[in-house]
Amino acid sequence: MASCWQVTEKQGFLIAPNPVTDPLPFLSNTERSAVTEIMDVASSLSQLVADGRCREACLALPIPNFSGSDVILDERAAERLHQAYAFLSNGYLWQPGAEPTRQLPRTLAIPFVQLSARVKRPPTLSYTNTQLTNWRRLDPAGEISVENIKAVQMFQSLPDEEWFWVLHIVIEARGAPAVIAGTRLVQAAKMNDIDQIEIQLEIIRCGLETIIELAGRMEEGCRPEVYYETLRPYLFAHPDGVVFDGVEAFGGKPQTFLGQTGAQSALIPAICTSLGLRHARSELTTYLEAVRAYMPEPHRQFVAGLEGQVVRDCVSSTVSQNPVRTLYNSCVEKVVEFRRLHLGLAANYIASRMDNPRGTGGTDFMRWLKHMTRETTEQML
User: Fold this and answer.
1) Which of 46, 144, 280, 290 is most exposed, with minimal Cβ within 10 Å?
2) Given the DSSP bridges, would you call strands 149-150 and 136-137 parallel, antiparallel or unpaired?
3) End-to-end alpha-carbon separation of the chain, Å?
4) Contacts of 74 by beta carbon, 8 Å cutoff, 6+ apart
5) Is the predicted pLDDT of residue 359 greater than 70, yes or no?
6) Virtual CA dihedral for 128, 130, 132, 136, nearest 10 degrees?
7) pTM exceeds 0.70
8) Hey, is 176 helix, strand or coil?
9) Torsion of CA 365, 238, 170, 226, to 10 degrees
10) Which residues on adjacent β-strands are paired with residue 243?
11) Is pLDDT above 90 for 284?
């Protein structure tokens, strides 16, 4: 059976073929009763948050045992459960109207760590939870579009939050052809197949145009002030680390993780890597390598396996006015255009609203985004 994280031309890095929204049919009988209660609480999270009862509800949860290999029978069900615990955990840590806490109760900590071992990612909220697995189709036969996708899990019952998740999900799907074209581009470059290189570069250019067009729609459904004041606070990891009660492997010591961030998406890294775009070693590149641990394992392997330098070498060997070189530079220009758009969104949604802006991933994101934009511009051929 193919992994649910196999990268496809229709859905790119989104879970495939569809997320499991109800894990119960894919569980052994021993844990179904407990999981029914847990999923009821997860489904009610937005109301519990609004009522200030998230912590109370989480403390009363049963503690299922997910450690056995025969407990969860489908990889997608494990992802749905990991998502539920990730949202519940951040809802608990950052419950509005109460002091933030760094103590995750055993009712969340023990099963969350077990599920994290199963999905091979840290026990913390990540882009995989909020976007890659966080969708369902209204029309099961319909495409992945803003009109046909609803979020599965949310912190609040606000259309702004749902739009923020859904727009990213659609961007992932619509960027998928460019991702697959990147793998074909590398193979074509290895064979010095100029015609095929040109075909794949055009697909990448069009894909980037679509990504830019969609990203430009963010304010259409998500107001910057609403994002900043009501959604962003839930996306942070605790800066001093989280103590996972009852998890012997952690020995009662705080565990420090990165917060949820779009840098945990493989979409733009895959496209840039296939084009052979690189950044000089710095604190930024160290961070970008660290966030890959928060991606599904097949996505880390996918990006690592792209040998984009062969593409730059092949295109560089053509004469300066060659259509392939022109098309390659057009792709780089589109990456720069995307980075500038991203920079503008980051300024509008976050940086303009605080004195010393830090991203949910803990970074000086404005400085880094400017640096990446400048370095990308310098890689035109």
Assistant:
1) 280
2) antiparallel
3) 42
4) 20, 23, 26
5) no
6) 150
7) yes
8) helix
9) -80
10) 103
11) no
Phi, psi (deg, nearest 5) at residue 361: -85, 0
Q: What is the pLDDT of residue 360?
A: 62
Residue with tokens 């990446």: 372
Residue 52 has φ and ψ, to the nearest 5°, of: 70, 25
Q: Give 30's Cβ-side CA count (13 Å radius).
A: 10
Inter-residue contact 172 to 267 (CB < 8 Å): yes
Q: Which CATH class is domain 161-171+178-222+261-377?
A: mainly alpha
**Average pLDDT of the residues of the chain:** 94
Within its chain, how far is the Cα of 350 from the centroid?
Answer: 19
- H/E run at residue 243: strand 243-244
Residue 285: per-residue pLDDT: 83
Q: For residue 334, name the pLDDT band (cuts at 50, 70, 90).
A: very high
- DSSP 8-state class, residue 259: P
Whether the Cβ atoms of residue 188 and residue 197 lie closer than 8 Å to each other: yes
pLDDT digits (tens, 9 = 90+) for 5-45: 999 999 999 999 999 999 999 999 889 999 999 999 999 99
Output the pLDDT for position 357: 63
User: 13: closest CA among 333, 292, 361, 307?
Assistant: 292
Buried (b) or exposed (e) across 285-303, using 16+ Cβ within 10 A? eebbeebbebbbebbbebb
Q: Fill in the DSSP letter of residue 372.
A: H
CB contact at 8 A, 361 and 367: no
CB-based burial label for 326 (10 Å; 0-12, 13-18, 19+):
middle
The radius of gyration of the chain's CA atoms, rounded to the nearest angstrom, is 21
The domain segmentation of the chain, as residue ranges, is: 161-171+178-222+261-377
For 118, 260, 298, the CA distances from 72, given in Å and listed in that order, are 9, 25, 20
Alpha helices in 32-74 (DSSP H): 32-43, 45-51, 54-59
